[in-house]
Amino acid sequence: MGRRIALLRGINVGSHNRIAMPELRQHLTEAGYGEVRTYVQSGNVVLASDLEPDDLERQLERQISERFGIDVHVIVRTRDELAEVVDRNPLREFATNPKRCQVSFLSRALDPQQVEELAATAADAERLVAHGRELYAWHPDGVARSRLWAKLAGTGLGVKATARNWTTVTTLLDMADE
To answer: Is the pLDDT of residue 16 over 80?
Structure first.
């Protein structure tokens, strides 16, 4: 079975969509996935499955809805896809704080005009680079007052999306390689 990384959107943010990670691990293990592991409380799962990412996304969304009574979007990448995300990092030259470098994982690539509109909301020091189904964003002053981050974190992209900081991205790849 291949390693898959499942990213659940909006899990355990404030008082919404609460799922205990031990309970999620147990449920996914009982559902037949192998080597289920989670990272932090925000819905990061590494597991073994032979399902294609799109099929696994739909199956996980359904299983989470049925078991936990919440509807969340799930984005899945294979181990090799995540390794490509890490290897290509177009922000490595100036993104010195991994907590302020974000990758938004999308269900499909955005059209170039939409990327241009997003980039236009960036503050002078911020950067946005689109590559296929990922958007790399650098927020040197943090995300709290970033208009770019507000657009990336919102639901107005027109695609399923969820973001992770660089520390989480690289940790998930390390977990997939263990």
So the answer is: no
